[in-house]
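lol so apparently i was supposed to do this last week
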Amino acid sequence: MSQLAEDYAQFVIPTYGRFDLDIERGEGCHAWDFAGRKFLDFGAGIAVCSLGHAHPEITAAVHEQAAKLVHTSNLYRTGPQARLAKRLVEVTGEGKVFFCNSGAEANEGLIKLARRFGSVTGRSGILTFTGSFHGRTMACISATGQEKVKKDFGPLLPGFRHLPFGDLKAVREAVDSDTVAILVEPIQGEGGIHPASGDFLRGLRALCDEHGMLLFFDEVQCGLGRTGDWCGWHAVAADIQPDGVSWAKGIANGFPLGAFWVSHRAIDNRGPLCDLLGAGSHGTTYGGNPVACAAGLKVLEIIERDHLLENACILGDHLASSLRGLPSPLIAEVRASGLMIGVQLASDFPKTTRTPALDVVTHAMSLGLLVIPAGDSVVRFLPPLNVTRQEIDMAVAKFSEILQHFDSTP
Ligand SMILES: Cc1ncc(COP(=O)(O)O)c(C=O)c1O
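anyway here it is w/ pyridoxal-5'-phosphate bound
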């Protein structure tokens, strides 16, 4: 056992099922452990490091801002927060942004917005979907449509119902006089890379319009470039606009930052929705931290300047089609949207020690490839948006070797 592993075992609360790997540093699409072993990193910190590790311009932006001002609280205004809010509104639509520190907190904010919106009519019900993942706070585990995150944590926050993902009829039937909002991942990430259909999202929009409800997209994993578009939902329904969007992960290349956007639309006589959370209604000490926002601004600037949305589309197609082209009976399906790619392993995957996904990911690690499990049987490929064709070809060749190992295991 490494010294790090011993220290973790002794001093860190064991909430995470970690792999046996101690990472020391990263550069671009690669990471190294303390023994100098090199890994091709196609997990990017679970869809976080959109520009790869240690991007020199992000490092410089963080240094520069840290030397000027690290924190001053939300009692005052700072430049990076205003500039990043403006940029996020430009890429999303007319509205306003609130900054927090994680994806769960971003969803918490949207949930509070829904509750405040519903307070005048006495509505508080929020519909979410099976297989979804919205974070680990009490409200977010209540919203998440997976039992495993809720186990032993009751009583949960009341008011959430989970409906079958993609079943518009079930949603229509579930809407009642208490329902105030729908929260949905346009592309389910932790659930195993499942894109919603365009018709499903359009149907949810129509239902919300019909009943005066709010439609929220959780874009924590699929937003801000991963799918090859600033707006993840554009991959399936570019013609609709939600009332709120949550972000985190790729927004600042690993610097902790979350945010949610709220539409300017006025839905009732209380004026623009984005002004409903007024002074004193919501907040967080670190929200909109100048260093985190400077990192976020630089991320968005580089994605735009280096045409990385196009790169995510073109190389995402290349990666997905290369994986589909592997002659392995162990791949049942490859689901993809830009560089958000899930390999569904076959249901007759050879007997494994834990789950098929964990076994494949662990073996991949031993061969120098980092990929991410989702559930029991999906392996996710989430490389940085500036990944190269050569790096993709290397990853696919390694993955082919990995599958052959299982295919030939008696
Ligand atoms: C879609 C989605 N929403 C919310 C979250 C929670 O984000 P965080 O871990 O930053 O709280 C995640 C994290 O995986 C996610 O994938």
